[in-house]
């Protein structure tokens, strides 16, 4: 075959592929999954090659279980943690031999401590290494959760005191992420998990984690933090150009295939719930909530989603994406900024009220929020307005209406998705079922919602 003909065919095929993906949904979905699987394989293979090429005094690679003291010294001096002739003498990773690394859904957490050549009690010694979990790398890449490393380097992250700064934040080849942060839970005045302040869902609060901090105080700080974060990018079209932010391309009408994959996974989770969990009798699902989820999934489609994101009466902004109390620390009672918000792997563009509704449903029992959450919402709104959001463009009534809906839409998706994960006890499903239903009945009691299938995940 003529080489020029082959080259022309390849060129034409490449030029037509974006149009083919837009109009052939099955092709688009296939290519999304193929790309993630290929990238995941390369992400796992590349570190094995680089370990034989690169010197040991380098940044950790995906899967590494050691950190170079020489490299860490360089990073600490860049961040002005140490100076002069002081250096990191040794690094001790705290890995349980029986349990191994603490692999979460979005990141594997390893705590480590350091010794300095010139010890100083003022210097931090306890740190956290967060890296991509190798066992879930396909889904992590598919979901774009390496975005956390990029977020810590943004102006927004660096401008908010409540976002702990990353000492080092980088991405490795083909989708891995390496983040090093100070371990706030082991400082002289250690942080208290806000989940313990709010009762820790069904798990309860161990005696050593009991706190005298009032739950209402913590919730108010959470709402004020959300307002400060969101006001910095309120309806900012530049956000939509940051393709690494979750949902940014969906807002632009792009990547329908990945959105459909997310919705497919959601629907399969719900069918699994109806075929296995509900008939088992271990969770008392109300017919009302079952009907709401059924109708919500039936009314959720790409066209309705696009109509929603193009509705200019509904603001968009940067959101945390997994805004619940286990991702927050209360550092000091006497601090002007006691709250610290961590785990930004789900950061993205979305409706601002989603973060607020998610944490109320996740962490706050109805007996605490009933009769009070409108007051907390007003504090949030007042903070937004003080930060420059227009009260004409976003009146409090609109804020209230969207709050009543957005958190439910996020949680209906999560309720379905939870069915894909092993080890979640029936008592947890019952808790979340009850929390969602109580919130719905007190906030508009709508017959159905638009399910926010915001994370691409294959189960």
Question: Main traits of this protein?
Answer:
Aminoglycoside 3'-phosphotransferase, Chain: A, domain 2, 11 strands, single chain, 10% strand, six-stranded antiparallel beta sheet, globular, 459 residues, alpha+beta
CATH class wording of the largest domain: Alpha Beta
Helix content: 40-55%
Could you give the distance between the termini? 43 Å
**Total helical segments:** 17
Helix/sheet category:
alpha+beta
Number of domains: 2
What is the strand content?
Answer: 5-15%
Compressed to H and E, one letter per element, the order equals: HHHEEEEHHHEEEHHHHHHEEEEHHHHH
Overall CATH architecture of the largest domain: Alpha-Beta Complex
Low-confidence stretches: 5-14
Rg, Å, rounded = 23 Å
CATH level-3 fold name of the largest domain: Aminoglycoside 3'-phosphotransferase, Chain: A, domain 2
Biggest pleated sheet:
6 strands, antiparallel
Mean pLDDT: 87
Shape category: globular
Number of E-state strands: 11
Structural description of this entry:
A hairpin with a 5-residue loop joins β5 (168-171) and β6. Strands 1, 2, 3, 4, 5 and 6 form a 6-stranded antiparallel β-sheet that branches. Strands 7-9-10 form a 3-stranded antiparallel β-sheet. A two-stranded antiparallel sheet has the order 8-11. It has 2 domains: 1-188, no CATH class; 189-442, Aminoglycoside 3'-phosphotransferase, Chain: A, domain 2 (Alpha-Beta Complex), CATH 3.90.1200. The chain is globular, with a radius of gyration of 23 Å. The chain has 459 residues and is α+β, with helices and mostly antiparallel strands. It contains 17 helices and 11 strands. α2 crosses α10 and α10 packs across α16 (396-417). 46% of the residues lie in helices and 10% in strands.
């Amino acid at each position: 075959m003529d080489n020029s003909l082959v080259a022309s065919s390849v060129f034409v095929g490449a030029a037509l592929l974006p149009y083919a993906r837009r109009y052939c949904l099955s092709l688009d979905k296939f290519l999304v999954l193929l790309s993630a699987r290929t990238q995941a394989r390369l992400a796992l293979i590349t570190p094995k090659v680089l370990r034989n090429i690169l010197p040991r005094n380098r940044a950790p690679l995906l899967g590494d279980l050691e950190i170079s003291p020489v490299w860490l010294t360089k990073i600490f001096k860049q961040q002005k943690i140490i100076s002069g002739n002081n250096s990191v003498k040794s690094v001790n990773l705290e890995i349980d031999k029986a349990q191994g690394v603490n692999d979460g859904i979005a990141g594997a957490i390893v705590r480590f401590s350091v010794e300095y050549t010139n010890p100083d009690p003022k210097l931090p010694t306890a740190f956290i290494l967060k890296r991509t979990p190798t066992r879930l790398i396909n889904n992590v890449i598919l979901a774009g959760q390496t975005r956390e490393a990029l977020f810590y380097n943004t102006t927004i992250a660096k401008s908010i005191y409540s976002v702990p700064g990353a000492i080092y934040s980088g991405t490795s080849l083909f989708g891995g992420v390496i983040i090093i942060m100070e371990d706030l839970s082991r400082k002289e005045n250690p942080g208290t998990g806000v989940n313990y302040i709010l009762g820790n869902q069904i798990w309860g609060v161990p005696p050593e984690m009991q706190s005298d901090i009032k739950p209402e105080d913590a919730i108010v700080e959470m709402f004020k933090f959300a307002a400060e974060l969101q006001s910095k990018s309120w309806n900012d079209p530049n956000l939509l150009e940051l393709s690494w932010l979750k949902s940014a391309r969906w807002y632009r009408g792009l990547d329908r295939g990945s959105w459909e994959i997310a919705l497919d996974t959601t629907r399969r989770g719900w069918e699994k719930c109806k075929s296995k969990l509900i008939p088992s009798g271990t969770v008392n699902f109300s017919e009302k909530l079952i009907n709401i989820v059924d109708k919500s999934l039936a009314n959720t489609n790409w066209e309705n989603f696009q109509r929603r994101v193009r509705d200019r009466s509904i603001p968009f902004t940067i959101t945390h994406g997994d805004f619940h109390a286990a991702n927050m620390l209360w550092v000091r009672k006497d601090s002007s900024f006691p709250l610290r918000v961590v785990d930004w792997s789900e950061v993205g563009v979305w409706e601002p009220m989603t973060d607020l509704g998610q944490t109320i449903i996740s962490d706050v029992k109805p007996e605490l929020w009933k009769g009070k959450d409108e007051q907390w919402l007003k504090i949030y709104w007042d903070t937004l307005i003080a930060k420059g959001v227009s009260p004409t463009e976003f009146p409090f009534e609109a804020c209230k209406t969207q709050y009543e809906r957005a958190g439910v839409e996020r949680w209906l998706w999560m309720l379905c998705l939870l069915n894909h994960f092993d080890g979640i006890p029936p008592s947890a499903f019952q808790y979340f079922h009850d929390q969602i239903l109580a919130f719905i009945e007190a906030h508009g009691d709508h017959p159905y919602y638009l399910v926010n299938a915001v994370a691409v995940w294959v189960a």
